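Lay summary. Proteins are chains of building blocks that fold into shapes, and those shapes determine what they do. In this project we predict the shape from the chain. Here is one chain we studied, written as its sequence of building blocks.
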Amino acid sequence: MNADLYNGRIVKIANSFVFKEPVFNYSGDFPFLWDEITVPVKYGGDYRLAREIFQKVLLEITGEFSDEAKVSWADLIHLYRVDQTEIDPRVFLVANDNWMEFTLRYIVDYKKRRMTKDRLFTRILEEVDQTNGRVAMASATFHLVETPEITVKIAEPTLSRKG
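And here is the predicted shape, written in a compact code that computers can read:
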């Protein structure tokens, strides 16, 4: 996870492991994780529409996880005295050298992480296709071409006679 935000891990450490290693339990008191995907969008496109699409898709795919997680997080606040945090799905934008990079942050059931990521990317691609080019995915594409043929002619040296 980027930006030092919660990732959903609750670390319980047995007395015998206090100085050895942490123990991660995804199925314990909070069965959710925060996850992120990044979506590169070409410059020149409608970034407002892109944000709108991404937020809509996030709510569609991960909204039920957010609702369930809010209830579970409220229990954690009382149990572990952790701070309140943002659970609703969010879209963040960073403009870099090559494209506009949208980071979609959402909460997901730890057992459904990969399936949810697949559903998100599928729906995003479907929605982007319907924009008729107003929003286009970006990628780094390199086209290598072969070196053109070079013909070199070496002229015979001319000898000059003196004398």
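What the prediction tells us: The first helix runs from residue 47 to 80.
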